[in-house]
Amino acid sequence: MTAAGLPAGPGALRRHNLGLVLGALRGGPLSRAELAARTGLTRATVATLVEPLLDGGVLAEELAVPRGVGRPSRPLRFHERGPVALGVAIDVDALTVAGVDLGGRVVALERVEGDNRQLPAAAILARAGELAAQVRAALGRPVLGAGVAVPGLLGEPGSGAGSGTAAGSGTAGGIGAAGGIRRGGGVVLRAPNLPLLTGTRPGPVLAAALGVPVSVENEATLGALAHLGLAPDFVYLSAGIGLGGGVVIGGRVFRGARGLAGELGHVVIERDGPRCGCGGRGCVEQYAGRGALLRDAGLPDVDALRHALDLGERRATAAVRRAGSALGVAVASVVNLLDVPTIVLGGDYAELADVLGPALAGELRNRSLHPDPPRVIASDADGSAAVRGAARLVLEDALRAPDRLTAAP
Prior knowledge:
By secondary structure, this protein is of the alpha/beta class. Helix content is 37%, strand content 19%. The chain folds into 3 domains: 69 residues, Arc Repressor Mutant, subunit A (Orthogonal Bundle); 165 residues, Nucleotidyltransferase, domain 5; 145 residues, ATPase, nucleotide binding domain (Nucleotidyltransferase, domain 5), CATH 3.30.420.40. It comes from Pseudonocardia ailaonensis. Belongs to the ROK (NagC/XylR) family. InterPro entries: ATPase_NBD, ROK, WH-like_DNA-bd_sf, WH_DNA-bd_sf.
């Protein structure tokens, strides 16, 4: 049935079935019989669906595997030269581009360090486009599109809403296996740590540079998207120059009506505390963000802080514990409101998790209303969560519109 309650036509049914097959293959190679068992489709239907993708270089067959009596099976997998998605992350201190294949494997990753805070928006976007074009050329593979992670709030001025979902996606403020995807027209309404991006539309600029569809989303939201599958419900926390976060409920990233859900860095923990870049006071970012952490520890960068922790230096250890406690105060309110059982630490927090995590968990034990407080785990994304999530936006869209796989430029 369609969203309007009408029977699905043959084309829509085929796209749905093909999405099931491709989704199953993201877990690894499977034979046609195994695909039929996983998806509930008949073997004949599976065979009909996969043949055009084999001919189009999207799928490949592995060597036959004898499995008892009968004809040996030939597992199917994504082709090593098949379509990819590009992820682009615009950070305060770097630009990162990744190529991610249909199985979710990062096949290219390039990062260029540099302070973007004083650069005009046009220069930032031009550099991002150039780096993405270089990665695309080096890959030499069909590109489905690009997702772009931006450290700011996206939307349309005066719309009363965030960046929204694609028309007809049938979603309400969520991104996930069945969720919507933002197209490239959104305006950066607010970017406290990269203020010169405010008022720009990164999507059309990068789409013109790359010649492929571009989707744009908040970096922390995409960081959360990169961790789908870790748990059905969790809060994702990531520290860099700023402090971002994302909320996942029921396996979907919850964005809220205006795209603001997950702005955990601006949860107030002290009403008359230090002024924040957002214009408020006492935001947890001023106590647990990278800048606050390094000032408190008296160290120049996170590498030096990590080294000091490894040596057991008291000032560094105390600074990280204080940051973890401040973070715990903020997150406890979120946990009590949303009843999420898992906290995922990303960015700088993943690097410091052995010291910061216990301090955060201690506050959650003391402040959580539930007798079983949330578990705290560190991300294993090696600082690339936002760029992986950006690519995943495109890959999720491809599963919903699989005909694009054989039409990618």
